[in-house]
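INTERNAL TRANSFER SHEET
From: sequence group
To: structure group
Subject: ABC transporter permease

Please process the attached sequence and return the structure record in the designated field. Keep the field labels unchanged so the import script can parse them.
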Amino acid sequence: MSFWEYVGTRHAQLLTDTYQHASAVFQCMVLATLLGVFIAVVTYRSEWAGNLATTSTATILTIPSLALIGLLIPIVGLGVPPTVIALTLYGLLPVVRNAIVGLRGVDPDLVDAANGIGMSRTARLFRVELPLAWPPILTGIRVATQMLMGIAAIAAFASGPGLGNEIFRGIASLGSANSLNQVLSGTLGIAILALLFDAAYVLIGRLTISRGIRA
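Return from structure group:
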């Protein structure tokens, strides 16, 4: 059976796996972004705290994804929980690092101007600092998403959702008629999703970043 014949006969399952893969990455990136920006907001004013946050999240990336998911299985079980936890943790570093860099790079004169017109610290953060730090934050989100697209395939080890199931089934049945087709369909699906997500981020950047800031 050729690759395209395999895709034609398995298109319903492939579409389901693709949707689950995209959904898992998207939801975990939302969690990683919220948590990462929160960590950055709490730590960016202090040199040691910011370094601690960056180092701690970087340390997570040194743990092999298969090992981390394996360690989570006895604690939270199989399926979605270990997938969500692992992907969220792996997505933190680019967001935290870029958010800290972006917040520290805000022009002090603009912060002083905001103070001068009586803005509270919270208002200054949400109306001045975070909007100006948004371009590097978005870059961090793009990098993290590309990472998670590949790491999410490992979730199949813990019966997680996504295109990794196709890859694992193909590897487990090497030598069979459709093993290569299974691995190839899962791999190409992940690559296409990564490109689509990145294109979406480019569009979001054009819609949310003013021309002055882009310049």
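Handover comment: The CA atoms of residues 48 and 80 lie 35 Å apart. The chain is about 80% helix and 0% strand.
Transfer complete.
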